[in-house]
């Protein structure tokens, strides 16, 4: 290798290594700052992790298990939903572990009874991969002698290696798609390292989705570019698609687009008279993808009564299916409703949807900044793809079209869900706001999404020099981190977080 080539490559790897460490530190600090349990079903996800740690795969919707119950009672916190002025004496009650033993016992008995009688875990039919991994991590923490709050936060700190791995995977993917564009290769992992997504600071299966979806995306690209797909690549791609499904049911749009993508590749090979030789690899891929998914679908049908395991959940939430004729009266078909749906999903894809003192954790104007900048950069990326043939390299072209396919299918999927249900008196979604606007459910396409964003940013900054590009990227990242610190500063002051255990 030419020394002049090896030196920049070595520097780039060092920068990516630093970004991995930065991502780990970022997630660790903010995970430690947020108290348990947040309002995005963290209690339910925690209970499910504990069940899996015991080898207990739920067969029905049920109250919390015995091992999880004391943690839910001790670390229960009203700060997410209620401001201090709503509480007795105008202040947040002291943590249970700081109360006198007699008073603490009374409080704990009351809270345990509340969780046993009022909480049925509607997440029990969730796909099993994250909970199996987190359950093993929980057992490891117990084996290391951790207990109480330290063990609880240990479970959250699983997000640290997951996000570090995600940064590394995003760089490998960007390097594969843009081998000649170092700016994009570094922008994608840099955005992930400092993304202010609150789901990364909690116990939930959303945190594994971008890693599973990103791995499937990367292998699909290799499949597209392979002159003749090998059985080993077929098995890896099929398993990656299965793992995405076994991480979160919201990966269904990605799987549908992947199916179309693979069909197009097969047609391309057929035109080259190679379809017969490639057929065994396609069959291996189909088997490796379908068998694990079929096993879980059968489990859900047998134990929860439907193929996705969601029917009981929708009944408990009070949702009902609307007649098809009523779908077209939905506000999604109005300009205002369409904008609410689009902007709500993009804003929460960046920042999450955690509340603090009953209000969304987002500074005024920040949602608008993220939404408008995203739309502008996605438009620029699309314009680059629509240029005359020959001006775009085949690999970036295929990757970005696949990324756009993932994005469009995911928005379409949640639009369809918004249309088909009457949400009645449910808090979210509701009749007043009948939209799925949870960007965290789209995290499986995070790497493809950021590839599009970085491509658009690179195009927007074409008039400036390379040094100016990096300075502007650094300014964006610093602004993003500063706004997150300012937004979440009140959370750091909580007596319930890891810093005050």
Kindly list the characteristics that best describe this protein.
mainly alpha; 18 helices; two-stranded antiparallel sheet; 2% strand; disordered N terminus; 4 strands; 64% helix; globular; 2 domains; 501 residues
Note down, in words, how this protein is organized.
Helix 9 packs parallel to helix 11 (252-271) and helix 10 (231-247) runs parallel beside helix 12 (275-304). The chain has helices at 3-33, 42-53, 68-74, 101-118, 129-143, 148-156, 159-177, 182-193, 209-225, 231-247, 252-271, 275-304, 311-317, 335-351, 366-385, 394-420, 446-460, 466-492, and strands at 320-321, 355-356, 359-360, 421-422. The protein is mostly helical and 501 residues long. It is globular. Helices cover 64% and strands 2% of the residues. The chain is built from 18 helices and four strands. The termini are far apart. It has two domains: 15-34 and 159-353 and 362-487, no CATH class; 42-156, no CATH class. It has a two-stranded antiparallel sheet with strand order 1-4. Residues 1-5 have low confidence and may be disordered.
